[in-house]
Amino acid sequence: MSDVQALIFDCDGVLADTERDGHLVAFNLMFQELGLPFHWDDAEYARLVRIGGGKERLRSVVTDAVVARYAEPGESADDMVARWHQVKSRYFQNLVKAGKIPARPGITRLINEALAAGLKVAVASTSAEASVRAVLESAVGEGVAARVRIFAGDIVKQKKPAPDIYLEALRGLGVSADLAVAVEDSGQGCAAAVGAQIPVIVTVSSFTGSDDFAGAAAVVSDLGEPNEPLAIVADPNGVMAGVTAVDVGVIQTLGRANRN
Q1: For 17-55, how does the pLDDT look when each residue is reduced to its tens digit (9 = 90+)?
Q2: Do 150 and 230 lie in a common domain?
Q3: 10 is catalytic
Q4: Which listed residue (3, 12, 17, 247) is catalytic?
Q5: Structural domain that includes position 30
């Protein structure tokens, strides 16, 4: 039986807890700079985070009245949202560069272990590529990040929970779904991986504790560290007993369990 050949991470909520500590902060800073009539609190953002993509979240709250008041002459609603999102992305990347959004437990360790073991490692995200690259470089350093493929932003038409970004990653990596494992944090991300027929381990994040993780191979608090053991939330295949940290061996076990 073949081993897992590729490990594919989501970005937001997986590499780092970027939604609460990064994106939400950046959205509100952008609203303030541009004088827009919005300020999102945790409760509202917990609802909006279920919409894949930052521009899509902004578009969901833009009414005709907002366009009439805040669009520049000749600017469409979509162009206005894209302009806002550029400002938001600048704030987000500055937060990352300032070290305000640390990597989640186990991320740096597992990416390095996977590369050392010869696995292909990638990030598949609906966020802007520049933001994804900033988070990845912050988590593992520029040298390691250069060895990780990034599939992000608007390279696919349908964002998560559609499987498109994962299907694109599989094509780009030249790996079949049964020889890959995905790491996600949300219900919509889990659904995207499952839709692409990739076994997925979920690391629950700040806004996703109540999400539906149907089809996940395992659900855990995080990837764990030797001195900071993970908590097992769900283990439908019965393969996580005694696991305190997800390593390449656990990834291979999850991949094999999915093929049985």
Answers
A1: 999 999 999 999 999 999 999 999 999 999 999 888 899
A2: yes
A3: yes
A4: 12
A5: 20-97
